[in-house]
């Protein structure tokens, strides 16, 4: 496993992060989830990403149990706050001071830890003053409950505004967690250049495009039994956008490129995101331990320029690049 600095900080994290969105506490039984975490540790992964909203707090609980007994100082544990949790009452979501403070304490208990390495604003809250949100994060940092602060799916301007307030309050934003893959490149036009200027790294999610870039979905053929595309709890609605024959046909053309690189299709997709020098880590998910081992092979890989150019040529007509898609990811209201 190789490691990279996260933003303009001294924190090093593993190039591949194990995340448990859509799996722990919902799609995967606890015993299997623990086996996946063990596989991550065995492959040198030290960074783990979750969120209180995943499986309505159950994912954090499962991760906390799976990491119990590990040397805490050797791990980097990330979680997030924003989405509705618990009974989903009127203050059980968003980035108000009340919710951030209560959510942080809940996450610490479920993760069985005294501190969170990276606490992230899961989306931008348009209904709470940014000053209130950033002051709450600053207080958590000063209390020692949070070591570093990041965000997820913020636009370039939101990053700029948040970073300025953070500096005034005596801390810094060091990361943004956006969706990013060969097929979804909306951060390249505005978010990445702004992040480089601000000292912010990307912690990217869905580098395999919810499994489409594994090549297991074939154009004109039935969906594989038990695959994510057939599982309403496991992200079928998210993957639907890519389940078009024009996309699937082009993905199949990547198979010889993966073979040329000596990688599985999944590892090629993860490695592709890591070629972007503003990406600190790529988050992988898994329902089986062998998937973790396969994806972890992307760490330390350098893809040559010719291969990268071929990827662009093959996928160009089906790549989403519109920067406006980032703004669309944050809700315009925080009603539960």
Automatic annotation (TrEMBL):
GO molecular function, one term: oxidoreductase activity
InterPro entries for this protein: AKR, K_chnl_volt-dep_bsu_KCNAB-rel, NAD(P)_OxRdtase_dom_sf, NADP_OxRdtase_dom
Superkingdom of this protein's organism: Bacteria
Residue ranges annotated for the NADP-dependent oxidoreductase domain, each copy included: 16-315
Recorded GO CC terms: cytosol
Transmembrane segments: none
Record's keyword terms, sorted: NADP, Oxidoreductase
Family: Belongs to the shaker potassium channel beta subunit family.
Entry protein name: Predicted oxidoreductase
Annotated source species: Microlunatus flavus
């Amino acid at each position: 496993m190789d490691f990279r600095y996260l933003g303009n900080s001294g924190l090093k994290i593993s190039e591949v992060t194990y995340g448990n969105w859509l799996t722990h506490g919902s799609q995967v039984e606890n015993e299997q989830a623990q086996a996946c975490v063990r596989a991550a540790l065995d492959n040198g992964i030290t960074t783990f990403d979750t969120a209180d909203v995943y499986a309505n707090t159950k994912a954090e609980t499962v991760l906390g149990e799976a990491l119990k007994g590990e040397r805490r100082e050797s791990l980097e544990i990330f979680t997030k706050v924003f989405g509705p949790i618990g009974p989903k009452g009127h203050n059980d979501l968003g980035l108000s001071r009340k919710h951030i403070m209560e959510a942080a304490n809940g996450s610490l208990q479920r993760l069985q830890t005294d501190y969170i390495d990276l606490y992230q604003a899961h989306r931008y809250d348009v209904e709470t003053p940014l000053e209130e949100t950033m002051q709450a994060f600053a207080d958590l940092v000063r209390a020692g409950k949070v070591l570093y602060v990041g965000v997820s799916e913020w636009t370039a301007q939101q990053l700029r505004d948040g970073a300025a307030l953070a500096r005034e309050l005596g801390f810094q934003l060091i990361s943004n967690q956006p969706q990013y893959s060969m097929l979804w490149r909306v951060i390249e036009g505005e978010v990445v250049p702004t992040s480089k200027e601000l000292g912010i790294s990307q912690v990217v999610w869905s580098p395999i495009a919810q499994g489409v870039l594994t090549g297991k979905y074939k154009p004109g053929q039935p969906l594989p039994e038990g695959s994510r595309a057939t599982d309403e709890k496991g992200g079928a609605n998210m993957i639907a956008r890519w389940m078009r024959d024009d996309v699937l046909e082009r993905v199949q053309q990547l198979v010889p490129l993966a073979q040329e690189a000596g990688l599985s299709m999944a590892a090629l997709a993860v490695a592709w995101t890591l070629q972007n020098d503003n990406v600190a880590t790529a988050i992988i998910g898994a329902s089986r331990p062998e998937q973790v081992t396969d994806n972890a092979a992307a760490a330390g890989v350098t893809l040559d320029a010719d291969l990268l150019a071929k990827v662009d040529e093959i996928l160009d007509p089906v790549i989403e690049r519109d920067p406006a898609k980032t703004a669309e990811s944050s809700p315009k209201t925080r009603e539960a």
